[in-house]
Design a protein that fits this description.
single chain, DNA Methylphosphotriester Repair Domain, Arc Repressor Mutant, subunit A, four-stranded mixed β-sheet
Length: about 190
């Protein structure tokens, strides 16, 4: 299993700004000026971007001299299954471009597909498929804001096999089409 997720600094920054719980445990935000580290979902006041470092491992962040946030308590695991769920999420984040199946994920983490789905839903309140769709839409939104790729190119770039499914899922999660999303972002910049 791959230990680190493939996210850029900018993508991790977006996750902490939106307090995205999907990435809790996959990386930690360390603030150089306060020497505190947090989960991506922490609701504390956001630091300046230049004061932030990201760590993928809780031991590494603590060895670097940071202490855990008293608000989000990143050092506390919430479940005996958290490591399995973290491995599944890491796999999904790292392989979102590929045609990922429940059986493929199950083989990767050494569980039966039925048990994996039940455990994942128990811990995250989502199925691996809906979680993967959210990751793909997050990536698509990032590409819509940061590139000039067409919607169709982005659809295939983030791992969707069907444009109609991409548009349907994008609209259900972002409440607008990809084109409307890009236009709203560009209007904010103007």
């Amino acid at each position: 299993m791959v230990a680190n997720i493939n996210l850029t600094f900018e993508e991790m920054w977006e996750k902490i700004i939106t307090c995205d719980r999907k990435y809790d445990g996959l990386f930690f935000t360390a603030v150089k000026t306060t020497k505190i580290y947090c989960r991506p979902s922490c609701r504390s006041r956001k630091p300046k971007k230049i004061n932030v470092e990201f760590y993928h491992d809780i031991n590494a962040v603590e060895e670097a001299g940071f202490r855990p946030c008293k608000r989000c308590k990143p050092e506390i695991g919430h479940s005996p299954h958290i490591e399995i769920v973290r491995n599944i999420i890491t796999f999904l984040v790292n392989h979102y471009k590929q045609n990922v199946t429940l059986k493929g994920i199950a083989d990767q983490v050494g569980l039966s597909p039925f048990y994996l789905e039940r455990l994942f839903k128990q811990e995250t309140s989502e199925t691996p498929r809906t979680y993967l769709e959210k990751i793909r839409i997050d990536k698509a939104a990032h590409l819509l804001k940061s590139t000039s790729l067409t919607n169709l190119e982005i659809c295939f770039e983030v791992g969707f096999q069907s444009p109609s499914n991409f548009y349907k899922v994008f609209r259900s999660l972002k409440n607008c089409s990809p084109s409307e999303y890009r236009k709203e972002f560009q209007d904010e910049l103007d």
